[in-house]
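Supplementary material to the annual report.
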Amino acid sequence: MSGSFGSLSFGILPWLIAAWLFAVGLYGIVSSRNYVHLIGCLAVCQSATYVLLLAIGLHRGAGPPIFYDHPPGTRAVDPVVQALVLTDIVVGAAVTALLLAIALQVQKRRGSVDPQALRPLRPTQ
Amino acid sequence: MSPRWRLLLLTLALLALAPGLWRVARAMPPFGSPTSLYGPAINQLAPAARHVSNMVAAVNFDFRGFDTLGEETMLLCAVTGAVVLLRGSRGEGGRDRAGRLPGRTVAPRADATVLVCRLSAALVLLFGVYVVLHGTVTPGGGFQGGVIAASSFLLLYLGEGYDVWRRLMRGPLLQLLEAGGALAFVVAAAVPLIRAHPALTNLLPLGQFRSLYSGGLVLVVNDAVGLSVTGSFGMLLLEFLEETRSSASDPVPDEEDT
Amino acid sequence: MTLPATLLPVAVLLPLGVALWLLAIAHWLPPRIADWTAVAVAAAVALLCAWLARAGLTGPVVQWFGDWTPASSGRPGVVLGISFVADPASAAVAAFAALLFAAALVFAWSRFDDTRSHFQVLMLLFLAAIVGFCLTADLFNLFVWFELMSIAAFALTAYPLGKSSLEGAFNFIITNALASFWMLAGVGLLYARTGTLDMATMGRAVAQLHHDPVLLGGFCLVSVALLTKAAILPLHLWLSDAHAVAPTPVSVVFSGVMVSLGLFGLAKLVAQVFLPSAELTALVHGLLCWLGVATALIAGLMTWAQRHLKRLLAFSTIAHMGVMLIGLSAATPAGFAALLLYLFGHGLVKSVLFMVAGILLALCASADELALYRRGRTRVPAGVAMIGAALLLAGLPIGLLHGADQLITASQPSTLVRVATVLATSLTGAAVLRAAARIFLGWSGAPGAEITAPTEREHEKSQASLWLMLAPCFVLLALALLPERMLAPFLGQAAAGLFAPLHPSALQLSPPALPHESALEQFTPLILAAVLVGAALARRRSTAPLARALVGIETGAFRVLQYVHSGLVADYVAWMVVGLAVFGIAVGESR
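Predicted assembly:
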């Protein structure tokens, strides 16, 4: 098992890293001054879910869930979470493509991509 | 809110979340020895039941094939949305010239660049097709191979320049590839229903374990996804690169609001 | 397999397949074909799902894709595949969604001709995702359809390519993408703890868990994600932007069904997965009820202070989601029956109102209540539809929405709930009535807090004839006027079926009985709304010092509310994290 530090187990590190990544991404989104940078921060948030899912499926000492070089029955990691992560990646690609297309059009129409200056409907006064 | 207040709010909220997060992290199943029986069951069953050696492909295209159907249409939907957004008022026409920044000299492309790009475009396309076709056997599959194959189009752009690339890339054909591949997935899912089997039932011969033609329906669906993803990313590249062309004929519509 | 079970996936595969076919040959397709096809497919899906709902009353309608039934794993508790289950409630919601899509597509007739049927493709993909979301019995599959639904919605919001619609769509995408990451993380946690993604199996595993932080964390993440889609305070900020700027036919399906699906999905998860856990049940009863009350009140006030019609309707949707959440938090068959009825009643009324706003945008080139003053006087049918729907919204004691309102207050017998629902009903109804009176009747009065609300000058072009826009509007209005009694027997069984979709006969429930209310109680919201409208329309510019001080306080209070709804995506994200923190704290307290 993992090494330990006092009563703390290093086994909880992956979960903390996932949470840290998400928090960093959130900080980026909240403080961003550029749509493209903000879209990048969203991708950072998303990478937290990759870390979480892959860590959930890891079997220590097990190989990839592909039985080409190893015969079936060899210990392998959980293929289900890997499939889930593939879906997650596709979600990320899809959302990013849409967001970048919008960022381009906003730049053309408003001449600015500062999320702290752009708002959909303007107050009248 | 001013940026400072906003950050303060975020920090307070994150601090409030910290204890809960800590408890969840401590209670998670130990890292490296998960308790789920789902994945191990698939690792044990799929090679014999489907003659597939790539378990991720088995999950994606057989056990949880309906997830992948949604995932594939999700990509297609996003690309269609991006196409609509990017085309905007500029339409489909491909007769315009490449955009030029005023004052920047255009250096002629070196022969070596053209040669390397042509060669590597062919190789990358071939590699993409290889990764798609071997999806049931080795790492990779329709999604990964499709993206690799579509990236060969970018090498064409690099080597041949905008005008040639624009003549080679036909929007309607890419869209046919994109939607046709996904439609093949839907049809493959629906055909077993005609014989009163559940959707996506694998009724095709399963082939030899570890051979190219293994997995029956898994392979068919995998290849359909490969086609569709190639078309989707090709379409996406085409529309984004169209943004680089000369914008003189592409006026932004004036709106009334101020 | 029985015939209904065999045809079950067709409800998803048909719109999906037709959308892909339209996209494949879009370049060569003659005009009008896409319009006809899309309407026909939506209608067919509505009929199919209605038939499935009927079939679901007699026994479970289930299909395990790829024939991976639970038995095929040979291991107890291990489910390899994904299944669709058409319990009556889910199939009925899917049928309702398809009906609204058909109406919206007729309303949108020939509006988007210049874009090579991409509009119809996106709408059909949207519909397929909604049907899949309703019918699936697998948690991750639910996430996949949820996400497809979101992405189609994102693209449709930005479709007009105006400045506002682009920025509204941007806010919509960022907030909802974050929510979907939370949902995915929550699904991951639940999978890590229970080892399955099948909802029924997961529910059995949850019953074995006690005081498990991972389960609680998974519940928080998944609920916050679904509540973001359902626009519950403080996760609601994206909605008023997205619904206000989306093209009208899209706003119709957004407000009519997409938003309430977040609550329906959560109700389903609560009934099938979370209810066996006592701690989670306590959270649902407590926290969700409070959030519902807060949402209903705040959004009701915000509705009153709007002038842009579509934004006004968007806030009214948020307030009604709060009322629906109160019904959900009862977590009983009676509460869920109320939720279902509210979903139908609210969806119909709100669709009608959005359609009227769309007609005004097309004919009078504005959706601003003050700019439209007296300009609807010659548009009698649109005025009739708007005033009729506004009265229903304000609690006129006929029709589905009123029945649902009564059921909700009956399912949660507390004064606070009663007050919140009455206020939400009368505030939202009064706001719409006020707008209708100004536009169609030419009544006025000095504007109050609404004058400072955000608005925009815009125009939607439509080549369709006026009657093609009015027809779906009146059909939906007529459906909203159906007496609640007609649906009651079905609702009782359907709500019970949500709790045990695979054994519907185990829970035979009598139809939910309406509480007996005196005439005064029945008319309370309507009277309150009439008072509010009267006060607004009789209002004159204040000159006396005391009156000016009062107006100053009123404007100041509303200014604070408007300030929070700033339109800046960074603010929205910060408030979303606050929402998650509220859940985290509530869970910590409940231990």
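Helices of chain B lie at 3-27, 38-50, 55-63, 65-87, 111-133, 142-168, 171-194, 217-242.
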